[in-house]
Description:
By secondary structure, this protein is an alpha+beta fold. The chain contains six helices and five strands, in the order E-E-E-E-H-E-H-H-H-H-H. It has a three-stranded antiparallel sheet with strand order 1-2-3, with no helix packed on it. Strands 4-5 form a two-stranded parallel sheet. Strand 4, helix 1 and strand 5 form a beta-alpha-beta unit.
Amino acid sequence: xxxxxxxxxxxxxxxxxxxxxxxxxxxxxxxxxxxxxxxxxxxxxxxxxxxxxxxxxxxxxxxxxxxxxxxxxxxxxxxxxxxxxxxxxxxxxxxxxxxxxxxxxxxxxxxxxxxxxxxxxxxxxxxxxxxxxxxxxxxxxxxxxxxxxxxxxxxxxxxxxxxxxxxxxxxxxxxxxxxxxxxxx
Length: 185
Protein backbone atom coordinates (compact mmCIF):
# COMPACT_ATOMS: atom_id res chain seq x y z
CA UNK A 1 0.00 0.00 0.00
CA UNK A 2 2.93 2.36 0.50
CA UNK A 3 3.45 2.64 -3.29
CA UNK A 4 -0.22 3.12 -4.15
CA UNK A 5 -1.66 6.60 -3.52
CA UNK A 6 -5.20 5.15 -3.69
CA UNK A 7 -4.94 1.73 -2.08
CA UNK A 8 -8.10 -0.41 -2.09
CA UNK A 9 -9.64 -1.18 1.27
CA UNK A 10 -8.51 -4.62 2.46
CA UNK A 11 -11.14 -6.56 4.37
CA UNK A 12 -9.12 -9.71 5.04
CA UNK A 13 -5.56 -10.69 4.39
CA UNK A 14 -3.78 -13.96 5.09
CA UNK A 15 -1.48 -16.42 3.34
CA UNK A 16 -4.29 -17.87 1.20
CA UNK A 17 -6.63 -14.97 0.51
CA UNK A 18 -6.68 -11.22 0.02
CA UNK A 19 -10.16 -9.67 0.10
CA UNK A 20 -10.98 -6.21 -1.21
CA UNK A 21 -14.33 -5.76 0.50
CA UNK A 22 -15.40 -2.45 -1.06
CA UNK A 23 -14.53 -3.74 -4.53
CA UNK A 24 -16.32 -7.04 -3.88
CA UNK A 25 -13.33 -8.98 -5.17
CA UNK A 26 -10.62 -11.22 -3.82
CA UNK A 27 -7.40 -12.99 -4.70
CA UNK A 28 -7.06 -16.60 -3.56
CA UNK A 29 -4.04 -18.89 -3.60
CA UNK A 30 -4.44 -22.67 -3.63
CA UNK A 31 -1.91 -25.43 -4.13
CA UNK A 32 -2.09 -28.23 -6.67
CA UNK A 33 -1.90 -30.71 -3.79
CA UNK A 34 -5.47 -29.89 -2.84
CA UNK A 35 -7.89 -32.19 -4.62
CA UNK A 36 -10.70 -29.73 -5.40
CA UNK A 37 -9.24 -26.24 -5.10
CA UNK A 38 -11.67 -23.69 -6.48
CA UNK A 39 -14.77 -25.85 -6.32
CA UNK A 40 -17.91 -23.86 -5.55
CA UNK A 41 -16.33 -20.48 -6.27
CA UNK A 42 -16.96 -17.85 -8.93
CA UNK A 43 -13.58 -17.31 -10.59
CA UNK A 44 -12.94 -14.50 -13.07
CA UNK A 45 -9.22 -15.02 -13.69
CA UNK A 46 -7.50 -18.35 -13.14
CA UNK A 47 -3.73 -18.83 -13.34
CA UNK A 48 -2.49 -22.41 -13.04
CA UNK A 49 1.26 -22.78 -12.68
CA UNK A 50 3.36 -25.88 -13.54
CA UNK A 51 0.22 -27.75 -14.64
CA UNK A 52 2.20 -30.72 -16.00
CA UNK A 53 3.26 -31.51 -12.44
CA UNK A 54 -0.15 -31.29 -10.74
CA UNK A 55 -0.78 -34.58 -8.94
CA UNK A 56 -4.57 -34.26 -9.31
CA UNK A 57 -4.80 -32.40 -12.64
CA UNK A 58 -8.08 -33.88 -13.88
CA UNK A 59 -9.75 -33.12 -10.53
CA UNK A 60 -8.46 -29.55 -10.66
CA UNK A 61 -9.87 -29.11 -14.13
CA UNK A 62 -13.21 -30.49 -12.99
CA UNK A 63 -13.27 -28.02 -10.09
CA UNK A 64 -11.27 -24.83 -10.67
CA UNK A 65 -11.44 -24.45 -14.43
CA UNK A 66 -15.16 -25.18 -14.49
CA UNK A 67 -15.66 -22.33 -11.99
CA UNK A 68 -14.59 -19.81 -14.65
CA UNK A 69 -17.65 -18.88 -16.72
CA UNK A 70 -17.33 -18.53 -20.49
CA UNK A 71 -18.06 -14.80 -20.49
CA UNK A 72 -16.33 -11.60 -21.57
CA UNK A 73 -13.83 -10.45 -18.94
CA UNK A 74 -12.86 -13.95 -17.77
CA UNK A 75 -9.59 -15.68 -18.49
CA UNK A 76 -7.78 -18.96 -17.85
CA UNK A 77 -3.99 -19.01 -18.08
CA UNK A 78 -2.19 -22.33 -17.73
CA UNK A 79 1.59 -22.51 -17.85
CA UNK A 80 4.13 -25.21 -17.31
CA UNK A 81 7.38 -26.83 -18.13
CA UNK A 82 6.49 -30.03 -19.97
CA UNK A 83 6.67 -33.38 -18.22
CA UNK A 84 6.86 -35.85 -21.09
CA UNK A 85 3.98 -37.11 -23.19
CA UNK A 86 0.69 -37.91 -21.54
CA UNK A 87 -1.33 -36.28 -18.82
CA UNK A 88 -3.66 -33.29 -18.65
CA UNK A 89 -1.05 -30.69 -19.68
CA UNK A 90 0.12 -32.66 -22.69
CA UNK A 91 -3.46 -33.34 -23.83
CA UNK A 92 -4.46 -29.67 -23.43
CA UNK A 93 -1.43 -28.58 -25.46
CA UNK A 94 -2.18 -31.10 -28.20
CA UNK A 95 -5.79 -29.87 -28.34
CA UNK A 96 -4.61 -26.26 -28.61
CA UNK A 97 -2.16 -27.14 -31.40
CA UNK A 98 -4.96 -28.91 -33.27
CA UNK A 99 -7.30 -25.96 -32.59
CA UNK A 100 -9.74 -28.17 -30.67
CA UNK A 101 -11.52 -26.16 -27.99
CA UNK A 102 -10.96 -22.66 -26.70
CA UNK A 103 -7.34 -22.82 -25.54
CA UNK A 104 -4.55 -21.14 -27.47
CA UNK A 105 -0.99 -22.38 -27.13
CA UNK A 106 1.66 -19.74 -26.55
CA UNK A 107 5.14 -21.24 -26.59
CA UNK A 108 8.18 -19.19 -25.62
CA UNK A 109 11.55 -20.81 -26.36
CA UNK A 110 14.35 -20.48 -23.81
CA UNK A 111 16.43 -18.15 -25.95
CA UNK A 112 13.76 -15.43 -25.82
CA UNK A 113 14.81 -14.75 -22.21
CA UNK A 114 17.62 -12.21 -22.30
CA UNK A 115 19.15 -13.49 -19.05
CA UNK A 116 19.93 -16.87 -20.61
CA UNK A 117 23.40 -15.96 -21.84
CA UNK A 118 26.92 -15.69 -20.48
CA UNK A 119 30.29 -14.52 -21.65
CA UNK A 120 32.05 -17.43 -23.40
CA UNK A 121 35.37 -18.62 -22.02
CA UNK A 122 38.43 -17.61 -24.08
CA UNK A 123 38.77 -19.93 -27.08
CA UNK A 124 35.08 -20.97 -26.94
CA UNK A 125 34.04 -22.61 -30.21
CA UNK A 126 30.87 -24.36 -31.25
CA UNK A 127 31.17 -28.08 -31.88
CA UNK A 128 30.15 -29.47 -35.27
CA UNK A 129 29.69 -33.03 -33.93
CA UNK A 130 26.45 -34.32 -32.45
CA UNK A 131 24.93 -37.23 -30.61
CA UNK A 132 22.56 -39.45 -32.58
CA UNK A 133 19.27 -37.68 -33.24
CA UNK A 134 20.51 -34.30 -32.01
CA UNK A 135 21.85 -31.23 -33.75
CA UNK A 136 25.45 -30.20 -33.31
CA UNK A 137 26.03 -26.94 -31.45
CA UNK A 138 26.84 -25.29 -34.76
CA UNK A 139 23.59 -26.51 -36.37
CA UNK A 140 21.59 -25.52 -33.28
CA UNK A 141 23.02 -22.00 -33.24
CA UNK A 142 22.36 -21.54 -36.95
CA UNK A 143 18.84 -23.03 -36.81
CA UNK A 144 17.70 -20.74 -33.98
CA UNK A 145 20.00 -17.79 -34.85
CA UNK A 146 21.71 -17.80 -31.46
CA UNK A 147 24.67 -15.77 -30.27
CA UNK A 148 27.86 -17.23 -28.81
CA UNK A 149 26.75 -15.87 -25.42
CA UNK A 150 23.52 -17.86 -25.65
CA UNK A 151 25.35 -20.97 -26.77
CA UNK A 152 27.88 -20.61 -23.94
CA UNK A 153 24.97 -20.45 -21.47
CA UNK A 154 23.36 -23.50 -23.11
CA UNK A 155 26.56 -25.53 -22.90
CA UNK A 156 26.97 -24.76 -19.19
CA UNK A 157 23.33 -25.67 -18.48
CA UNK A 158 23.63 -28.99 -20.33
CA UNK A 159 26.74 -29.80 -18.27
CA UNK A 160 24.97 -28.71 -15.07
CA UNK A 161 21.92 -30.88 -15.83
CA UNK A 162 24.21 -33.67 -17.09
CA UNK A 163 21.81 -34.33 -19.93
CA UNK A 164 20.97 -32.67 -23.23
CA UNK A 165 17.60 -34.46 -23.03
CA UNK A 166 16.84 -32.85 -19.67
CA UNK A 167 17.97 -29.49 -21.06
CA UNK A 168 15.43 -29.89 -23.88
CA UNK A 169 12.69 -30.52 -21.33
CA UNK A 170 13.63 -27.66 -19.02
CA UNK A 171 14.71 -25.22 -21.75
CA UNK A 172 13.01 -26.27 -24.99
CA UNK A 173 13.55 -24.52 -28.31
CA UNK A 174 10.35 -25.95 -29.82
CA UNK A 175 7.07 -27.41 -28.57
CA UNK A 176 8.01 -30.84 -29.92
CA UNK A 177 11.35 -30.69 -28.14
CA UNK A 178 9.67 -29.93 -24.83
CA UNK A 179 7.58 -33.10 -24.94
CA UNK A 180 10.06 -35.57 -26.45
CA UNK A 181 12.62 -35.65 -23.70
CA UNK A 182 12.21 -37.35 -20.35
CA UNK A 183 8.67 -38.76 -20.48
CA UNK A 184 6.44 -39.95 -17.70
CA UNK A 185 7.16 -43.08 -15.69
